[in-house]
Amino acid sequence: MADLLTPTADLHEDETVLESFQGNRSSYIRTNAWIAAGAMAAGMGILWAIGNPFVWTGAVGGLAAVLVRGAYLMSDELAVRWDLTNLRLLGPGGRAIPLEDMDQLNKLGSFVQVITKSGDKHLIKYQADPQATMAAIKRQHGGPL
């Protein structure tokens, strides 16, 4: 299971890990709180739209669903690690993105989205400071992103 959550690519002879990015507990909880608020509003809206007199149960259901999901996935999500080397960004599940293949970096809440020149998209999730994560990648990339 740990192989799925951390980089497994072998380092090249001239490659060294410079920084690692792992999920932050506070960011995970904050992100899930926003998801819960959206789920609660959606649940109530749907029940109101279909004429259910117990609209408040949509809030309870939305909150319960996100709490159960969040608690179940927290340990796995926070164990995911990305390693930035002098040549590549290495991710879980065998992902290896050469720095020269990176095209864009985007901040999506507490996530950093890496888009390659071929259009592949990768998320570095639940960063305490996504701007700092982006700055580290940009610094190593050396060119515009």
UniProtKB/TrEMBL annotation:
Keywords: Membrane, Transmembrane, Transmembrane helix. The chain crosses the membrane at residues 33-50, 56-74. The keyword Transmembrane applies. This is DUF304 domain-containing protein.
